[in-house]
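Quick one: structure for this chain?
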Amino acid sequence: MPNRRHVLLLPLLAPACAPREAPPVAPPAPIGYRHLLPLPLNVAALEILEADPPPPPGDVGATLSPRPAEAVRIMARDRLSAIGTQGRAVFAVTRAGIARGPGEALTCLVGCRLDILSPAGARLGFIEAEARAAATGAEAARPWAAERLLRTAMDQLNVEFEFQLRRNLRDWLVAVPPGTWGGVPAPPPGGVTREDLPRS
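Got it. Here's what it folds into:
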């Protein structure tokens, strides 16, 4: 006959032995880049094109908020500005999608292009940047997997875009003295100055 004390302890031990539920997975933070140093351009206007590139086969990006193409445009709106007196910059999304492949794997590809145009419309320079991120197996099956993958790819794109801009379009980046322009360096009265950025 089992010990009476052990029998009484069984109801208390049962909940402790039961499998614990995994804590809920929080959604990723909203995509935004206003906390980073702006990239002011020595052009009179900045145009961010609204056209989306063709989605890849098996794309699931259209179900996200923001969609991959809009996430790329958020990066451009948050980081770029036009504070010059002539010419214009045109930003376009070249790649944007999250494809679901064999075994439920996810692949995210995002890309963009920035053209610098003269007042007459001649192209004076351009850069392109791309980033890719992938998730497979249990990682791809987690809640918010596609959203987190997009955030990872966008963080990589943001770094690559700034690198290409500083390396290949450095003559159109503007250096401005400290002031109150949105809480970051402000353009001086009567014009802008150029910053000689270090070459990579």
